Amino acid sequence: CIVKDIPKYLTSYQNKRHAILSISYPSIQSYNKNKRSYYIHDPYNISVLVKSGFEISPDYKPDDLRKVKIPIASDNEHYTLRNEAANAIEKMYIDGQDLGYHLALNSGYRSYDDQKDIYDEYVKKYGISSAKRLVALPGTSEHQLGLGMDITSQSVMNGTKRVFGDTDEYLWCKENAYKYGLILRYPQNKTDITGITNEP
Fold it and tell me: What tens-digit pLDDT sequence spans the chain (200 residues)?
């Protein structure tokens, strides 16, 4: 609750939770225009929501980052995750291997500056409006939390498949990630809410 917004809550005639979210934090739904931004006070909390309007300090870096123990894409310079996320993807990798699926890490933790470099590159290539849909703004990426990861498969790395979304591994991950505490963060049917294009 934000004290200065209380009069708006009362006149909205919404229940308390909806009034607070829609009035004080409208950018939770990315299609809402909002001029407010909030800094996350506890980015170490694994349940934190980071996105445009809910930002991490540029100098935040988790203190439990470690290299993952699964195959890593050859062009990937971002191969660390927070310990909890690393444990989850390693367990998923092992279980997938047992079923004939071959996962690999395509990108893990990225600093604020790393994210800025990627964002700036997309702006140069595709323009600012496309870049905003394709890449999280620096300070709003779950990669900076050390919890977000891009995964791929051996078939993409060796050129048998063009994109991860065309693989059996992708379908298996999409159906089973929750068993490991992971989610598909930007599903295709939720782009209007997340504000980020699906990246299968």
Answer: 889 888 988 888 888 888 887 787 776 665 666 667 788 999 999 888 888 788 999 999 999 999 999 999 998 899 999 999 999 999 999 999 999 999 999 999 999 999 999 999 999 999 988 888 788 889 999 999 999 999 999 999 999 999 999 999 999 999 999 999 998 888 888 877 776 777 77
The model carries a pTM of 0.81
Is residue 199 annotated as part of the catalytic site, yes or no? Answer: yes
Of the candidates 118, 136, 138, 148, the one whose C-alpha atom is nearest the C-alpha of residue 58 is 138
The residues facing 152 across adjacent strands are 104
Residue 5: enclosing H or E segment and its boundaries? none
Within the chain, where are the H helices? 6-12, 16-24, 83-98, 112-126, 128-134, 142-145, 154-157, 168-176, 191-194
Residues 6+ positions from 157 with CB-CB distance below 8 Å: 71, 73, 74, 104
Catalytic residue (one of 55, 121, 169, 199): 199
Beta bridge partners of 153: 103
* Residue 77 contacts residue 67 (beta carbons within 8 Å): no
